[in-house]
Please model this.
Amino acid sequence: MSAPPIYTAGYEGRVQDELLDRLVAAGASVLLDVRAVPMSRKPGFSKRVLAASAAAHGLRYVHLQPLGTPKPGRQAARAGRADDMARIFAAHMETDAAQAALAAARDIARAAPTCLLCFERDPHVCHRRIVADMIAADTHQLIEHL
Model:
């Protein structure tokens, strides 16, 4: 049996139920929050509310804070400097905490269909794509951006 794909999703421009329904329809069973700061001004996407709603949709919620982008990277992303964000995030991923969280994410993704969640709608300007690529480099799983 082949490993499930790694899904990624951004909640920008989405409402919570629509996003969670999409994850369930795709076959995800784990929602892996890769935000450094799991709070949102957007209703339904702060950690506690999101975790409870994910559970109500049959999804296991896991937050791995060390896989989030450090503040300077988030500032670069907001300013439209995707290359700077990627460089800052790459340096962050060399830390022990980030490497331990990446190993945990690999284990989770190997065991169950997992969706990495962050804010940005476009995965090409979001660090979740980089995290998914790092996991897939080891597991050889396909990546599907939802």
In short: The domain at 6-145 is CATH 3.40.1010 (Cobalt-precorrin-4 Transmethylase; domain 1). The first helix runs from residue 16 to 26. The chain is about 45% helix and 15% strand. The mean pLDDT is 94.
